[in-house]
């Protein structure tokens, strides 16, 4: 059974393969054909539409990456949880001994709330790490961005001929 990272990595490989295909000599020959047939404007419009879809996908992946970063954020909040733990582990009696009689009844509630908070934090981190693999999402977003950049190059190539390559001339004027 595949996990989420395996699936995202597989999609990334597919997108990268599409990008590689779009950069082949065959596609370059097709752009020349499209330009020579005078339909470059239509093809460019289609490529731009695909580019807009890829931009949407990139935006969604960026948001998923933000969600996938939540466990790291929770890890960085660990010092705050340590402080809460110290307060939550203080008994009502200890609070009274420290002269905090008014807070003594809250000690048990604070301890219970802290236990629930720690369980929720651990659960959220486990679920997110299991379903949203941060590195895999980043690689997928980057591969989609690469395809989008390749499509932008093709948009230009279907309507504007590349600069002509200068032929080398041998001594004596022959090519």
How does this model look, in words?
With 175 residues, the chain is mainly alpha-helical. It is 77% helix and 0% strand. The protein contains 8 helices and no strands. It has helices at 4-22, 25-37, 40-68, 70-76, 78-88, 92-97, 106-131, 134-157. Helix 1 packs parallel to helix 8 (134-157), helix 4 (70-76) runs antiparallel to helix 7 and helix 5 packs antiparallel against helix 7 (106-131). The longest helix is centred in the first third of the chain and has 29 residues, at 40-68. The radius of gyration is 29 Å and the shape is rod-shaped. The chain starts with a helix and ends in an 18-residue tail after the last helix. The mean pLDDT is 86.
Quick summary:
With 175 residues, this protein is mostly helical. The protein has 8 helices and no strands. Helix 4 packs antiparallel against helix 7.
**SS-based class:** mainly alpha
Termini Cα gap? 61 Å
The succession of helices and strands, N to C, reads HHHHHHHH
Strand content: under 5%
How many helices? The count is 8
